[in-house]
Specification:
17 helices, binds protoporphyrin IX containing FE, 57% helix, elongated
Length: 348
């Protein structure tokens, strides 16, 4: 009969508990905050691993192609993204545990780390890449060259490049948004635009919506109308094409319709992840300023200055979040044709 499974074997506890090797002390009597420093980093990396696991699962759901917006798949994807949000909330709070270490305590062992740094966290880079942050969007790209001391190794860099080259969550979400069938002619054939003829290939819904948006703008915001045309009909925004931007706006506008509950939750979770990640960037940046002031980082970047730069630049879903710029009041929204509302209610 096989031996009973033992708790510590199941979770490989010995390996984890014997994986703290401080550089500044070997006996407990000489111990300092390096133990906390190592454990906090390890806990982060474990949570990063779980985030990557969930992200890959969500990506696989979307990679499989046609996803029914009310299917189990969609609610699983939303559930996993919300879980990632909860993990991010937790790891944001963990910053304050490390902040119980003072800057003088940190100096006890800081120089022994050189040139190691969180900058070299491959898992953090994988999360960013799998979400959809591209190298071209990064602040101070020169820091990422693997030949630079303090950057990722060549092997790790290659793995991050590969993740960036695979379908990122953002690309998959864009494809899904572009497939939205709600502007098919069959649903709209009996509707006329309230506000005039269709302009070129611009759908009648959008002719009405653009007019309603125009009336909603205050005098000092009239430039937004040109932006509206650019974002939803000409260029799109960032790397999100116009059709996907239109679908994101449409879902956000009509999220009260049953079929849009899940898609809206999905878009909302993406904005939430972006926000929580930037909260982490902010907390980490503030902690770094407290710990080392304006000194360069162990990883050789300018330190707090570099981190502050990433804070304003490193977002994956900025375009989706900024759809809010183009919303109007609920009561001013164009009415949808009956054929469409019937289609999107739960009587399918
Ligand atoms: C005393 C605490 C800490 C200090 C002083 C510190 C300092 C820094 C500095 C200066 C950088 C910029 C790169 C460099 O030149 O080294 C950096 C980057 C980074 N650190 Fe920390 N760090 C601390 C704790 C942590 C913790 C607990 C984590 C959790 C994993 C972490 C993860 C990262 C990551 C992921 C980056 C890259 C950020 C990016 O490029 O956007 N750091 N850190």
């Amino acid at each position: 009969m096989p031996a009973d499974l033992y708790y510590s074997d199941y979770i490989d506890l010995d390996k984890i508990l014997n994986s703290q090797h401080p550089k500044s002390f070997s006996s407990l009597e000489d111990g300092n905050d390096e133990m906390l420093f190592i454990i906090v980093h390890q806990v982060y990396e474990l949570w990063f691993k779980q985030i990557i696991f969930e992200l890959d699962l969500v990506r696989r759901i979307f990679i499989r192609g046609r996803i029914n917006d009310n299917s189990d798949d969609m609610s699983r994807a939303v559930n996993k993204l919300k879980r990632i949000g909860k993990i991010l909330e937790l790891i944001n709070q963990q910053v304050s545990v490390l902040e119980t270490m003072t800057s003088l305590d940190f100096l006890e062992f800081r120089n022994l780390l050189l040139p190691a740094s969180g900058f070299q966290s491959k898992q953090f880079r994988l999360i960013e890449a799998k979400l959809g942050l591209k190298m071209g969007q990064r602040y101070k790209r020169e820091y990422y060259k693997h030949t630079r001391r303090g950057s990722l190794t060549e092997i790790d860099s290659r793995e991050v490049d590969q993740a960036e080259g695979e379908s990122t969550l953002k690309e998959l979400i864009i494809e899904w948004l572009e497939r939205m069938p709600f502007f098919d002619k069959e649903y709209w054939k009996d509707t006329k635009p309230k506000s005039g003829p269709e302009a070129g290939d611009r759908h009648k819904f959008w002719v009405d919506y653009r007019n309603a948006y125009e009336t909603s703008l205050s005098k000092n915001e009239t430039g937004r109308l040109m932006e509206f045309d650019k974002v939803f009909f000409e260029e799109g925004r960032g790397d999100v094409p116009p059709a996907a931007m239109r679908a994101a706006l449409f879902i956000t506008l009509y999220r009260n319709l049953p079929i849009f509950h899940m898609p809206f939750e999905l878009l909302n979770s993406l904005s939430e992840i972006d926000e929580l990640l930037s909260n982490w960037r902010y907390r980490h940046f503030m902690m770094v300023r407290r710990m080392i002031g304006l000194r360069v980082g162990t990883g050789g970047t300018s330190g707090a200055g570099y981190l502050e730069g990433t804070l304003s630049q490193h977002y994956a879903f900025r375009e989706i979040t900024e759809v809010a710029t183009f919303l109007i009041e609920r009561s001013k929204r164009p009415m949808l044709p009956t054929a469409l509302t019937e289609k999107v209610s739960f009587n399918l």
